[in-house]
Amino acid sequence: MRTDFGLGGADIVTINQARERALEYRRMAKTGLNPRFNAKRDIPTFEEFAKQVHIDRMPTWKNAKHGQQWINTLRDYAFPKIGRMPIDSVDQPEVMMCLAPIWTDKHETAKRLAQRIKTVLDVARSKGFRSGENPVTAIKDAQALPKVKAKVQHHKAMQWRDVPAFYANLKIRKAMAAKALMFTCLTGSRTGEVLGMQWAEVDLDARVWTCPAERMKTGADHRVPLTDEMLSIIEPLRAMQSDYVFEGQKRHRPLSNMSMLMLLRRMQVEGVTVHGFRSTFRDWASEVANVPREVAEMSLAHQVGSDVERAYARSDLLDKRRELMERWSNFVSNTQAKVIELHKVR
User: Fold this and answer.
1) What are the Tyr recombinase domain coordinates in residue numbering (predicted)?
2) Distance in angstroms (rounded) separating the CA atoms of residues 215 and 236
């Protein structure tokens, strides 16, 4: 009976080594031995195997940045200590060497590191390089590391009452970062969604911007209704004939990821982050607009309800969200609208 099995990844096993192993396995088979159980195996190091796991999983990463972060965590905190060790020699003491120094000071990073080490060791076991319980699981079950109560840190946000004055300040600035920040404030979108925005995603006739799934945290396309104020920001930028709506210093490339935050610092706006404007919009939607929760949440591209509820409620409430975004745009950009909205609160 024919049996097929791999000889190892191309970055670990050279062509000559693969040929030698294949010949060795054929000789064993001729004598009645099963190569799977009788052949000598070169045990890769933890670093070699982790890099192979990273390569194998590249097609599954949500985006290139996430994939790079995955291997970078291992590169910074695991490879210097256990990278050269054979993958079958890594046990609880070696894992503890990686986790313990950063467990309390960099707890979120340490948790990600533990999960990624566990993944590498699980895959190694499935490939026959390891046996027994995963040491990361054993450490967790034994509660060998102290419990850390991590405080949730929210993005610092501007009070919604202060947004119109801030927006008026932005409006007199000519920098591309100012235009991008104005658009971000009005749409309640995330930084990456706005900076990666391309003209191909914009339907001016339907007055809709469709942000593709690969840039969305939810992994699904998100339609953003475009108001008059939003269109007044982006339409003049068409004259640049760039692929990107908010072009950076390089032709056909977007603005830097830090451009809007640096603008806030130059404006000496303290205690505010770009992402925080999403929270500002959400507060206004609750306190002033008084819209149903699902309308406000969908405007921020948040998932609403359980999996079952979402399976039945498939509408993205575009028309209702358009009404909400019109009111928000009017409030942010128009002093008279501001007076009306404040009156509603009272």
Assistant:
1) 153-325
2) 24
